[in-house]
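Subject: mismatched residue count in predicted assembly?

I count 1164 residues in my input, but I want to confirm that the predicted structure covers every chain. Input:
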Amino acid sequence: MAGIPLLSLAIWIPILGGLLVLAVGGNDRNAPLARVTSLFAAALGFAVTLPLWFQFDAGTSALQFVEIRDWIPRYSVRYHLGVDGISMPFVLLNSFVTLIVVIAGWQVIQERVAQYMAAFLIMSGIINGIFSAMDAVLFYVFFEASLIPLYLIIGIWGGPNRVYAAIKFFLYTLAGSLLMLVALLYLFYASNGSFEILDWHRLPLDLRTQQLLFLAFLVAFAVKVPMWPVHTWLPDAHVEAPTGGSVVLAAIALKLGAYGFLRFSLPIAPDASMSFQWLMVTLSLIAVVYIGFVALVQEDMKKLVAYSSIAHMGFVTLGFFLFNRLGVEGAIVQMISHGFVSGAMFLCIGVLYDRMHSRRIADYGGVVNVMPKFAAFFLLFAMANSGLPATSGFVGEFMVALAAVKTNFWIGFVAATTLILGAAYSLWMYKRVVFGPVANDRVAALDDIGAREFWMLAVLAFFVLLLGVYPAPLLDVMHASVDELLRHVAAGKLH
Amino acid sequence: MSAMNEMKTLYLLVPFAPLVGSIVAGLFGRWVGRRGAHTVTILGVLVSFLASIAIYFDVQAGNTFNGPLYVWGTSDGLSFQVGFLIDPLTVMMMLVVTFVSLMVHIYTIGYMADDPGYTRFFSYISLFTFSMLMLVMANNFLQLFFGWEAVGLVSYLLIGFWYTRPSAIYANLKAFLVNRVGDFGFLLGIGLVAAYAGSLDYVEVFAKAEHLAGLTETVTGWPLVTAICIALFVGAMGKSAQVPLHVWLPDSMEGPTPISALIHAATMVTAGIFMVARMSPLFELSDTALSFVLIIGATTALFMGFLGIVQNDIKRVVAYSTLSQLGYMTVALGASAYSAAVFHLMTHAFFKALLFLAAGSVIIGMHHDQDMRNMGGLRKYMPITWITALIGSLALIGTPFFSGFYSKDTIIEAVAEANVFGAGYAYFCVLAGVFVTAFYTFRMYFLVFHGKERFEKAHHGHEAHGHDEHHGLAPGEKPHESPAVVTVPLVLLAVPSVVIGYFTIEPMLYGGWFGDAIQVLAEKHPAMEKLAEEFHGPLAMALHGFTTAPFWLALAGVVFAWFCYLVRPQVPEFFARTFRPIYVLLENKYYFDRFNEVVFAGGARLLGRFLWQIGDRTIIDGAVVNGSASMVGEIAAAARTLQSGRLYHYAFAMIVGMVVLLWFIYGGH
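Triage response: the counts match. Full output below for your records.
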């Protein structure tokens, strides 16, 4: 298998597949063909990532499945791909979610089908590029390119206020990443003309420089995560995005910023990371508590889950900046888990929205009476969202909470309030939407989920439970890489 | 070695047989049907019960077990495992859980016969049994927490079983959230254990207990073991419904009665008691924590008992009685009488499950009317329910020779000997509680089974519950005895309610049966040791019981109830009028619910709205984001005026630009 460029395939199969879909199904009369082609491309795209998992050597922190080709030799920009135990799971998650999204949009999307499917496929390839690029220019190109399909998805297939949301999303994230570009250029000169991210990890930098770099990266990544207080684009984007857009946004796009911290901020500016620990921990805790309360009072289901995503990502950034293995590994598990759980939550809301064309909690009530199968799935995901043990949502929260108590009891104290807040906003929404007597005639007329929706949710439920009951394989994959990262951060660059 | 493997198979059977039953009934209920669902789940629990008996004999022969099932995950030197610890404490809990669960499963066939959610109900109670067994069989804190939350989940599902009733879905959300408040503390306790002991395995942690006792928590400066124990106990306060986290338990009566017996009386709510007993090596090292436990327990024992007096719903009387009895168990824990707490846990599981199921039988007989004011004289119509309920009541009030006597009397004696701070207050509470218990228990008993028949009143003002069900007896209709699937479990529970105390007190409390599972520092907390010196067998204890204060207090309570509710029915109203403020206070349950609703629930919503509208919308979006966007707009507008469209303006600007550029490039040289 050594000769097969798996990462390139993971990137280019979806992108070329997307272009093919556009070519064959550009006209909506060919929508069925576009759908089938998309499904095939997504399935193939997912299939080529499977060997990454099964052939991965968990014993080393070195990059694996490496591909290096010259791209722009004059600036020593290279097409350098590779994954370690931190990034590899995300390539799989992304390719898997793409498959789910294609299936989710099967019947719902009736206009510009090929364009819709193509946008998701291209997006999927680009995101795989982000997670496997080891050259900074390549990374930056993918990082910025990922904005375009999502912008289009929200702007074209979105709700009534889609233009405001799309532009807010675009400008917010673009503004963030411009500072990152400055940082990348600085590092290029500082390293005597290298765009190799790994070279930068070893580049000695004084504390002041590190801190400036850290802040530049922080702006870019904090917007993406998003961290408080640069989070307000997310609820708007989610509310306007079509279901598939919300799923990709929550499950994958939010992970890009968090991944950036691990790939850039921590290893390139380790001493600055330490010196800004207070800031990062504070912002993370605000995200957990402040956003938890805000989520509680949302009247729109999507906004509620969007806010809950921000709170959950607060746990991720908290875990990173505790600088111990339990915290970082817990945070990575939380990212993967959040991919399944938030994706599933948005799919559930999509199931309701497709039928009622409303996301307002007040329009629902008593859904369980007419959609018992759906109610069971929705409950599982709501419970996972509130971190119930034996679901994936528990694993990361538990590990990060333990790590927080170990670092400082009061950090753990504040973080652990998520047990109460997470349950409060998830289950209060569930109560108002699902339980109770049938609220109105439109609820009474609801049909339970069909086979396609059933299997889509069942697969996600399977992973949510599997990861909750047996997270060891995922943890084992990341040990070596996380160890190496933390060793590097602890050693610092100041001697 | 093969014997060892056989035992391991048995261990696995205990929790997983009910799980399989639950999955079959839950996911394939439509295919297996009602009969299939109850057959498979009852079979699962029966297998579990029989395996528990076999394990009991094995443990009796001196074989214990502590080992992992599989490694859940590892990180940072911590190995998170799923595994079993089988010792006398575990096996006792396994027997209680599986036996009561089996009785409740059988009883459910009768109680839920007409319910459309029949298979779902069986799936839930089997899932509960699995979760509870995982909790008690755990050999580490992770699995303990898993079981802890899983029983909470099933409790949530079962309280809200009749999900169209607003009161039920309010109660289940409340139960889950209040329990989460407890779990918040529990998680912090586990976090401290992991941080300072570097392990979540019970045995490894206990081995370091002495070492931990010498440490202080680095950030807060608190004595470490005290902090750990109080944090863990906050979890127990949620699950075992201790003041002020007790508020969910009375409302949980919205669930079907069989689960009130199984979950909200016999098993789940005792998880906190079990947990503290399991942690005795840690609690023994902190007198502060023990005092805290003692005072909370004593307060619960007495003040929740008072509330039982003013209830009219038969299930709510039993619920408040459960709160009070859980308080007794907690008091015992605080007095370092862990074995007495667990002993009371066991006897209480039998007689309280019996009382709940008897109450359920009454409710069936009354066609789902739960108001005691509409009952009276039922002993004529429901003889088996009457006798078994009387047995349960006598056990509950601590009548000598009944199981409840042995456990409750031991607790009172242990508190009398306790020496930690608050022991005096606790002694007063548990003693006064005896009178209160006897009074509300026999108030219920007399109102339901004796006196005038008041069935005719049932048709007024009973629309509180769902509109889809008809409640109460039709005019002229009489109650009827319940079918055998209901009465047989009553009889089977009545037997241990009478005799179990007599036969087990000696080994459990004074025979060292628990071995190392429960550890007491006798030189510091000598209560149980002193009791052992004074113990001369169960017969002598019961005979002596007739001469002690608790017996006379209980008798006084019964006589007073008899006087108030059979002889002079106007007396209660006289008291309610004369002591109006106290009566109102009790009617409103000390205003705990009102306080929580206004301060916590209301406050959280208010804070959420404030942060959302002011923080996110006005400041971040309004001032910063849209503010900078409009600033860009203004600059652009200013710039637009430069684009006048007149060619000579552009030409002039170009010339100026060129000059500046040329100067910039060449001017420097």
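The longest strand of chain A covers residues 64-72. Marking this ticket as 'not a bug'.
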